[in-house]
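Hey all, quick one. A colleague (J.T.) asked me to put the magnesium ion job into the tracker so the inputs and the structure tokens live in one place instead of scattered across chat threads. No bug as far as I know, just bookkeeping. Sequence used:
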Amino acid sequence: MPRNTAVRSVEAIPVSYREPTDHNRFRSVCLVKITGEDGQVGWGECCAYFTEAALAAAKIVEGMAPMVVGQSALHTEKIWHALRKHSWWYGTGAGIASIAISGIDIALWDLKGKMLGVSVLDLLGGPVRDELPAIASLHGTKARIEDMAEEIAGHTATGLHGAKVGFGKYGNAHLGFDRDRDIAFVRQVTEAMGPGKSLMIDCGVNNFWDIPTAIGRAKAFEEMGVAWLEEPLGHDDPEGYAALRAATGIRIAYGERESTPRGVKRIVDTGTVDVIGLDPGRIEGITGFVKAADICALSRRQANAHNFSTAIVGAASQALSFASPACNLLELQPVYGPAQTDLVDRPIWHRNGFVDMPQGPGLGIEVNESLVRGMAI
Ligand SMILES: [Mg+2]
């Protein structure tokens, strides 16, 4: 047992980086560095995406810091409840407060593991599975469907079990706007990947389908074997999703925009979601993710870590996906990106399509702090 588990300092570091998977656009998150009195360091991430949101999360983390300093880093549950209670007026299920709590909570879990010399996975109760299949997480960006099919199949040829492709993104792909083009895309990608590979379609905010459009696409995609259709009606349309559910048998995915376990319960209880996206950097950290994933498991729904920011959320997603009965695969970004690859000494990756088992202690990563300082905004 470590002698002194108290937190000495909490530092918020908003950073910005180019995201090659998203057409090289800038993305911003707020990293959180928590140092213990024993000198150990834990890292977390507030998955804010936008510069103003990363800066706002940093201010909230700084405001919450006095409630964390002096506490035992082992008391993650106690601190989580205290921060939620503290943000009762500006939080209570709202985005930025939950995103700020996420960064603090992930850093505390990492620090707790490092202080105890134990992996976060072991702290969560250990792996509930021996293997975790990985799929590629990509955006469609190219004008020619043939080129996108070739690119995606190139990634799945490395062993990845399939691909989730974002529609309605930046670039020239123009996916999610034209029925014939969408159907041609699914057909050509499926053929190029070959048998045994899954294709998931993830609609973006620019697609903005109405209910008949969603039903039409869902029926066509279901027939073509698409594994799931994500956010075809956005994140908040219970009536629309009920209509879609009644009309098709395709697996429906949404939930990544929920900020709290309570929000996840609300959508699970609608009976219209099969795969619930959960972002550790948004859903109030590792503590919040576990509670939300348990809600999914109790209702026999699949939870799916939204692993689309830096290697810190990647490491948290890796541990959580091995530890949660509701998770059965993990999305990885196969396109090289410094935030996923260079930020840490041991970025999460796969072997023959299966995600590496986390190695402790903590999140099992050492953060490249000089790179972090260079990315700071
Ligand atoms: Mg998504």
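Adding what we noticed when we looked at it: The chain has two domains: 7-118+370-375, 123-367. The mean pLDDT is 96.
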